[in-house]
Amino acid sequence: MYDQIKKLGKQSVIYGLGGILTQIVGILLIPIYSRYLTPEDYGVVQILLVTAGFLSIVMELGFKTALFRSVMHDETHDKQTIYSAAFYTMLIAGFIILGAGIIFSRGISVLMFASSGYSYVIRVMLATAALELLDVIPLTKLRIEGRSTQYSTLNFSAFLLRIGLQILFVVFLRRGAAGSIEANAIQALLFGIYYLFIIRRDLVARYSVPAVRALLQVGLPLIPVLLAGKVLVMADRYFLANYAGLDEVGIYSMGYKIATAVSLAVGAFQTAWSPALYAAAKKPDYMQFYARTMTYVVFVCGYLALGLSVLAQDALKILVAPEYFSAYQVVPLVSLSYVFYGAYFVTITGMQLHNKMYQLPYVTISAAIFQSALNFLLIPRMGMMGAAFSTAVSYFVMPLLAVWFSRGYFHVGYEYARLTKMAAVGVALYFLSLFIQVDNVWLSFAYKGALAALFPLFLYFAGFYSREEKDRVALILQKIKSRFLMQGDKKLP
Fold first, then answer.
1. Can you tell me the distance from the alpha carbon of 26 to that of 172, in angstroms, rounded to the nearest whole number?
2. Do residues 280 and 353 touch, judged by C-beta distance below 8 A?
3. What is the pLDDT of residue 100?
């Protein structure tokens, strides 16, 4: 079982490496954004990015997932026919939405911002969403072929170009919110041209209606699920903009950006989990593997969430302009949301194994509706803290619903006692960190960071680790010690 977990961890690291590097660079750029974009400007950018995310889901027609099934299991069509059918269909959908958006851009601007002055950036945002369709085929093809290193490299390269253009347009050209959106559009255009070049041999000049029909049968039912997932992550910005203003959206989004470091671990795990869960199902101890995976996912994500929650206030004092300082308040709740999200991907394993994925929309759509209701109730009264609270509660509900729906055909004995110990230790350390009051922000950062780093040690005293885990850690430490001793012997004359 531990060999399976080790393999899963390695794949998660490879897929997550590009995202980790992206997050590091993004955090380093926070001081720039906070000083050259006002909270209102940053709020405008976030609203536009959220809208682009919703439109991308519709334009892509669920083909990112549908292509896996068609390419790997459809024996009636060759790969070129399938890729071509997907590519041309997405372009048609993209052009229809782009054209309609351009025609009605002034009305959309009034609807979103109560002003027609944002129609230009809305048109640029729409063009960006359409251009980003060009990456669907090449990136999905890399995932199908298991080329995780190339996949991560391309994603990180695209991000670096986007950041460079962001600095040019926002810092040097002083284009504000419009410059941020323009930078995204130029990056999408340049990489779109490159993607067209690398997939030119995968496309043919024919359009197969049967291949499109097979893709749509898988892809279209996913759109409501994907939209519901996007509502869970992003829809609170619309509520904040309406009830609290764009300034509040900008401050909330800054705190959310810090917390999304946990989502990188979740995303890496999610990418590696699908092949791992099917391979584990053939093993005799597969139920124990799933239960232990849940424990380790919560451990890794919870450790990251604790660190971010403890350090957020000092980190923002170091990184951002004063008008963004209050963003630290939402970091603990949003970070916790991603811990629940990681657990959710383990709890839907039964649906995947037993071909019950039709139940998944009930989970995500129910959680999205529940969160929207909480947003409606809490945001007018609590502002961004209401948004953060509704996000955490909604994400907590998702794994509970998944377990409930799969209770009749799939029962995993999750290690609830160990999960409870992690929660208790994490909460205790977080509240203990609140008593660390040091005037020097760097010393405060160091003290709180040291406290958070002791999370595994406090778990040891709480009796969290099994005998097997203790033995494995001792073996690893012994190997490390042996290597150091060997290196020391080599240096001796």
1. 18
2. no
3. 94
Question: 148 or 66: which carries more pLDDT confidence?
Answer: 66
Q: Collapsing DSSP states into helix, strand and coil, what is residue 323?
A: helix
Q: Give the least confident one: 27-41, 66-80, 270-284, 306-320.
A: 270-284
Q: H/E element holding 399?
A: helix 384-405
Nearest to 109 by CA among 54, 48, 56: 48
User: Band of the pLDDT at 143, cuts 50, 70, 90?
Assistant: confident
Both structure tokens of 264? 């990188």
Identify the pLDDT of residue 493: 52
What percent of the chain shows pLDDT beyond 70?
Answer: 88
> Cβ atoms within 10 A of the Cβ of 359, count?
15
Helical H segments across 260-356, by residue range: 261-280, 286-319, 331-347, 349-353
Looking up tokens 């000083």 gives 35
State which amino acid sits at residue 220: L
Spans of all domains in the chain? 1-26+244-462, 37-234
Lowest mean pLDDT among 58-72, 194-208, 324-338, 380-394: 58-72
Residue 112 contacts residue 91 (beta carbons within 8 Å): no
State the Cα angle at 476 between 470 and 478, rounded to 5°.
100
Give the contacts of 280 (CB within 8 A, at least 6 positions apart).
4, 286, 289, 290
CB 102 within 8 A of CB 55: no
Q: What is the DSSP letter of 99?
A: H
First to last CA, the chain: 44
The predicted model scores a pTM of 0.79
Cβ contact 43:243 at 8 Å: no
Burial 64-84 (b: 16+ CB within 10 A, else e): bebbeebbeebeebeeebbbb
Model confidence at 492, pLDDT cuts 50, 70, 90, reads very low
